[in-house]
Amino acid sequence: MSLLKNFLIWVHLLAMAGVFGGFLYGRIFVSADQSYQEIIQALLKKTQYFIGLILISGFALFYFQIQTALQGKISLGDIFKDGVTHVILTKLALLIAVGAFSGIGAKKVREENYPAAEKMWLLALVLTSIAVLLGVMLRSI
Prior knowledge:
Elements: H1 2-29, H2 37-71, H3 76-81, H4 83-110, H5 114-140
Helix pairs in contact: 1-2, 1-5, 2-4, 4-5
């Protein structure tokens, strides 16, 4: 179980780094020369896969946290009163919003509305940054 949990943590961390790097790269070059637009579209499409990996690994890690707490004879109500659980659920909400803003940005690029796409990806980058900081905070607890 420990090996699987460590594997999921690494998948989660690397996917978060991929999403952050993809949005950062896309944000820097989104308003650049129009010849980069196809590359950016492909990059941000791959970023959506990383968002899916983050959500799947995050759900699995949360499941392991609940199972560990239940094995320690902690009631389910006490688990959800914990501050760590609130941080995890906040991170989940942020990552769902990141996926939404990423999808809206991709749609705006297809419509060739680059300023709106740039705003959506900037919002996704900011929310990803907040989620990363929350994750770092969780690892230090």
